[in-house]
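INTERNAL AUDIT FORM
Audit reference: QA-55
Scope: verify that the stored structure record matches its stored sequence.
Auditor: D.O.
Record contents follow.
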Amino acid sequence: QVQLVESGGGLVQPGGSLRLSCAVSGITVADYAMGWSRQAPGKQRELVVRLSSFGTIKYGESVEGRFTISKDISSNTVALQMNSLKPEDTAVYYCFADPAYGNPYWGQGTQVTVSL
């Protein structure tokens, strides 16, 4: 059974940082494109970042230069370092694993709130 479990969300002030982690079981992160999406209240889910199995990274325009994705094959985890956070970054953040064929796997999400 494939499981993706996010952690690290919380409340942070504007300009602050958070580090999200995604613990993966049932698949090997080295074999999948991994990434993060987010969904703010009343908005569609949007791509934050996608890291291909070949190492190609695509960031959403709104986060490029502030967010960094990393993958640890030894622990089978994926992390998202978020710096210079803005109120508009407030959302539920979801980890995903995207196979070459078939539907992606999703985590249950972790809430990130950026506010004074």
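Auditor finding: record pair retrieved intact. The chain has a mean pLDDT of 96.
Action required: none
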